[in-house]
Amino acid sequence: MTIEASKHLEFFEKYAQKHSHKGWLNGYYWRDITFYCNYFSQDEVSVLEIGCGTGELIGKIKGKRKVGIDFSPAMIENAKKQYPAIEFHCMNAEDIQLNEKFDLIILSNLVGYLEDIEKVFQGLQHLCHPQTKIIVSYYNYFWEPLLKLAEALHLKSAPHHQNWVTLRDMNNLLYVSGFDVYRNARRMLFPVYIPIISPLFNSFIAKLPLFRYFCINQFAFAKPIPEITSDEADKKYSVSIVIPARNESGNIENAITRLPKFGKHLEIIFIEGNSTDDTWDKIQEIQKKYAATHDIKIDKQKGKGKGDAVRLGFDIATCDILMILDADLTVPPEDLPKFYNAIASGKGDFINGSRLVYPMEKQAMRFLNLLGNKFFSWAFTWLLEQSFKDTLCGTKVIFKKDYKRLIENRKFFGDFDPFGDFDLIFGAYKLNLKIVEIPIRYRDRTYGSTNISRFKHGFLLLRMCAFAARKIKFI
Length: 475
What we know:
With 475 residues, this protein is an alpha/beta fold. The chain is 38% helix and 19% strand. The chain folds into two domains: 3-224, Rossmann fold; 230-473, Spore Coat Polysaccharide Biosynthesis Protein SpsA, Chain A (Alpha-Beta Complex).
């Protein structure tokens, strides 16, 4: 071990002793980091924490398999005593000797002490599968003067050295190391616990525009940059396309004839939704007419609303990827291969259509609907801490394996969404999926009229946003 490494080891061992998470000041600060990382973990995932110290974070986070590593033997021995059910290893972050891949990897306030951040990030590649998620927490450089003052007043231990990394620097370091940053977040304005004051500042004021830029903790969420080619992705997965249809008799056959061939296999699922026209008869007719060339399944929903129809269709689906296509065909069936390519090539885990990029045909969306969509775009960008253009586009795509996890996690939000859009978006966010939007050209209806009530449904959507804010933002 070099003299420099020995100095680092001595510092970190002293730091661990002085900064136990059980302390009044530091306990509050560290508990929030643990809470936030735990928010994006699930019981069925495998978790690795690099720089685990004495194990407080990895000891409390959800996961079916949990592993912690740190380069301090004293810390690891302490961690093993406190959390005997968890696997701990003493090794350097720059040279991790583990031969397995993890679903979630966490680096909590570690990068500030690393000699070569890029080398550590590059070393994570062999621990990742294509869907692995990385969470990196680190200090906001705006806090450097205050933290130095805290050190001078002996409220905080002075580190041997500290990297003050900006958000742009962190995202760039992850990118050049082979990772795609899909979300950045900020938390905690007031890192000392004072009743009423600390919860007010950290749960509410810290989430407001402008104030959020001064939070002490920054988070980067990343996943490996996909290496799969378009040709490889083209035939890799089978696809189930769910088409909810209520009073859409004139569009049923077009949904079949206009649908391109893509993926390994296409399964088309029509769910009829209590129509007052002959939609159900038309669906049965089309199933028989195209039985020789298309795999078509049909069913009638017993409940009400598009959300109920989508859930029924997804329950019937047997393929790898689940898609929604509205039967009004205002999202052209010809555009569905774009959605497939995005998810099959690993560019995203949840793909959402965006109707608000290209100019629309004149009658495609009424003015008040357009204003509502613009508002919800702003609200969701703020709620989910990433750019979100169009929340209410009917076409959404998710892997079936992730949808099954979403079902298990649905109890967190409850059954609150009759449309199904917010249920899927919020569920994808909670599962820490990378959400990607695909611009499409929104078309006029060629048959029938909209089933949306602008004011009634608009107020319902506002209530759902307020509900989600309590579950997502003000935590």
